[in-house]
Amino acid sequence: MTVDEELGLKDSEPERKRKKIEDSSLGKSVTPDVPEDLDFLVPKAGFFCPICSLFYSGEKAMTNHCKSTRHKQNTEKFMAKQRKEKEQNEAEERSSR
After folding, report:
1. Three-state secondary-structure class, residue 54
2. Pick from 13, 17, 53, 62: most CB atoms within 10 A?
3. 69-90 as b/e, with b when 16 or more CB fall inside 10 Å?
4. Are 24 and 75 in contact (CB under 8 A)?
5. C-alpha span between 52 and 46 (Å, rounded)
């Protein structure tokens, strides 16, 4: 299950909404003036939590997420990891002097 599905968000299915034309020389549908690699991009506006790797489209959902036990636990783990890395870097600097 994707994050969007988990949150009840569903892409607007851009493939269905794009106007396609039939390319008679290739015998397949193509999207006019759109490079193939752009088909995978979906524009979104909202909030991304890098600690939990979750995206929220609304401010209320983001606020609720920040209050959640899951986010608080992930933040604790993240901060502990940051402290440990900082201590290791400082120890390496001292030993290299």
Report:
1. strand
2. 62
3. eebeebeeeeeeeeeeeeeeee
4. no
5. 15
